[in-house]
Amino acid sequence: MAFYPLMRGLHEWAEGGDQVAHAGLLLDRYVAFPSHNSFDQKAQSEQIDRVVRVGAPRNADANAILGRWKQLAEVLPHAETWEQRTVWRLAAHLSRASVLENGVCCLHPLYGFAYLPGSGLKGLARAQAILELGSEDHPEVCRIFGEPGHAGSVFFLEAWPKQWPRLEKDIVNSHHPEYYANRGVGRPPGDWENPNPTYFLAVAPGVIFRFCVAARDPWAANARADVQRAAGWLKAGLAELGAGAKTAAGYGYFEPCSGVGNQNAPAPAAAPQPAQGASTTPPQPVQGAAGNQNAPAASPAEEISMAIQQLESGDQARRGVPGLIERIQQLEDPAERQECARRLKKRLTDKPALKKVWNSDDWAEWKQKVNTLVQSQRP
Question: Which of 35, 40, 183, 252 is deepest in the core (most CB within 10 A)?
């Protein structure tokens, strides 16, 4: 019987099954111990499985909750808002104090969904700015992000998901725990050591997050320019530096969502009137021309196909294919799902650099998912 370090009434209620519909409470409060003084890897894995099973709230409208972020962003002056999608899994707050030690995720304290705090986004944008400008003492860095005794000219909202995000259980498996415990002194690493699996939570690939940067003083002369500058640094930081933990292993990177731009951008200026006698017929767009503003927005399936064609290296495949699979699975048309999966498999098996990853032993899970999608509906 599991032991819950709770009051008697809550203890009996928690034992009734998956009663708790809040992922954060399952991580910090309703933790089932297998005994009064033991909590091993198996218990940690089972608790994380319970968290993963928690979906959108049962008694509230998830879209209404997530829509509150958009309502706030729409009233902020000079706000720059946009959306970006996780390329691979996102791991955040792994070092936060928790009963699970390191299995936690950055979850909203009220609603329980995964989100990115504004303070972390500000730090990421500042790091990108320092990389581009070459110094943390650059006047632009100090003005936009602030310095001791002086607040910055912009602020960052928390990044909320567009839809209720799905969490996944991930694993780090140390094959030489005794070697690392002794810091390599007197005990060399060997195949005779027992692996020590450690489980943790991560946000699934393909989750769209909403970001917003706004001016602290909307009446300042450089308010709009500073917001655009900071938003550009954050977009670049999310794509190049990554957010959260384990970025060196491919976690936490974001890609842009096509067709999603600034929601609060001012309306474009009126087009100038043509000179007297000049033709009023607009020029026809050239088919296939790059940068054609009159071309219709690409469909989700077309976006996936273009992303597949951009896969060139094995590193790109390892970082990008899981997210592409997630996006293919979300397509509503079964025929489009099958066609995109077929194109992805063809790309991975035709190009030598990608074929090496496709045939590797650690790629069996993704290989099976692609083959399942290809065979899901035959023409």
Answer: 252
Tell me if 196 is assigned to some domain.
yes
In a domain, 367, yes or no: yes
Tens digit of pLDDT at every position of the chain (379 positions): 565 666 566 665 565 545 677 788 777 777 776 665 566 777 778 888 888 887 666 545 778 888 899 999 998 988 999 999 999 999 988 777 677 766 678 889 888 899 999 999 999 999 999 999 999 999 999 999 999 999 999 999 999 999 989 899 898 887 887 787 776 677 778 787 778 788 888 999 999 999 999 999 888 888 999 999 999 999 999 999 999 999 999 999 999 986 444 444 333 333 334 344 443 333 333 333 333 444 455 688 887 888 888 788 887 788 778 878 888 888 888 888 898 999 999 999 988 888 888 888 888 888 888 899 888 754 4
Same-domain check for residues 325 and 219: no
Note whether 175 and 235 are same-domain residues: yes
CB 178 within 8 A of CB 38: no
Query: Which residue range forms the structural domain that includes residue 351?
Result: 300-374
Domain count, the chain: 2
Is residue 276 within 8 Å of residue 286, measured between CB atoms?
A: no
Q: Is residue 10 part of a domain?
A: no
- Structure tokens belonging to residue 310: 């951009």
Based on the domain organization, do 249 and 323 belong to the same domain?
Answer: no
Write down the residue that tokens 């390599």 correspond to.
Answer: 184
**Its pTM surpasses 0.70:** no
Residue 155 CB partners (closer than 8 Å, separation 6+):
118, 122, 213, 214, 216
CB-CB contact of 48 with 19 (8 Å): no
> Do residues 212 and 304 share a domain?
no
